[in-house]
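quick one before i forget lol
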Amino acid sequence: MTAAPRTAAIVNLGCKVNQAEMEGAARLLRERGVRLVEATARADLVLVNTCTVTAVADEKSRAAVRRARRANADAEIVVAGCSVQVDPSTFAAIDPAARTWLANKGFDRAFGARPMARLIERVIKKPLSELLLFGALAGQGGDVRITVENDAIRLVTGA
């Protein structure tokens, strides 16, 4: 997906930390004009926040990713949370298009997925804001793709 999403669905499994993270993500999406839809509806972007506290939670997490892909074949699927951190290869096999980098870097064994918000702020939001205000996109708009290169987030601008 190269254009900004117009619609997004959020699937949240797990603890209150996961709930708080997805509430924050929902707020950021709404602030950017993205319409939130039910998880069963068609969406341009689907966020799946996973849980690994039990084997049942792990299975529900994998099933949520599969359902998201079946319901939204062309959507960007972003998988985050504890399950994807513990077993990223399983999630990559379920959905090769899912990005696991942020989940891997945003997870800390002591704090769970809580550091993810600070990571997103540091590697995406701040650099993107600088691009919009002072860089390649200043005053002209355009598309920005978020990629991973050499184990780091890279913002790629294009017309």
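fyi The chain has a mean pLDDT of 75.
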